Amino acid sequence: MRSKPIDAPGTPGAPVSAGLKACVPVMIGYFPVAVAFGIAGLAAGLQPLQVILISVFVYAGASQFLLLASIKAGTPWLWVVALCSLLNARHLLYGPLLARFLPESLRERLRIAFLLTDEVFATAFNRLGAVEPASRGRWITGLGLGAWATWIAGTAVGVYAGEGLERHYPVLSQVMRFALPALFLALVCQSMQPGMRRPVLAALVVGGALAAAAMAVITFLTRALPFMLSTRSCLLRRLSEEGSALAALGPSLLAGIAAAVIVPDLVGAQAVDGRGAYIGGLVVTAVAARLVGNSGAAVILGLAGYGLLLALGL
User: Fold this and answer.
1) How far is residue 117 from each of residues 62, 89, 93, 147, 167, measured CA to CA in Å?
2) Residue 46 lies in domain
3) 94 assigned to some structural domain
4) Which parts pass through the membrane (predicted)?
């Protein structure tokens, strides 16, 4: 059953404002992670303006942290570009999944493409169907602009104030980095409908256990792009059908990415001292996402739970 439209065309700015409002949970999750990136950028030896411009023009969280790690390791630039491109290849699935909601104008689609991130995709995938068709382009633009502006603002705060925050609140940096996995988990829990539980749970398992195989899958998806984008493509037609079982592909893809973010944190050296707190924070986030129904509130509660458990030494 279709949801009641969440906004009407009205004034030109109304859909943009509605998109900004829908972006609040993403903003809550993005800001602390962007602050952490600003801090890490300075630690990697970059100038403040360079760090901020990376967030302005690259605007790809995981790739930005990979970029910093590559700079520290002295990786050749061609390899850095290749690695970042490979990491972002998952976006090849986002376009076809959202295509049925988007305006036909190539100019609008290119603008939306720049603003599209994992979390923007997840929010749009869950809510665009309830937006009036004439308003969808402006709605997702508002959603994307809110996320982009927050990412840039958080980076600037990390660059200019992060060192002082870390000095006065040493545990803050660790808590801030928890925001991204918490946001992923909250979005997965919100997007997972009863009929999607099996594919989504399967994606969580596969995403966490088969990280190496994911590279082969991404390579295949990249090669398959022409077929996926073809107007005669069976896959694209089925993705465009309202009742298709492939509608679970969006949440499943997000779940796989969430697992790929969370599992390395759990098994890595950084999480050894606070593994119990990390798991506890994830549990709080998941429960809050299902009970409260708001991913922003779930992230805040998850951060609070994680910080409290860390303070208790768990």
Assistant:
1) 10, 12, 12, 9, 31
2) 14-311
3) yes
4) 24-44, 51-71, 77-102, 139-162, 168-188, 200-225, 245-267, 279-312
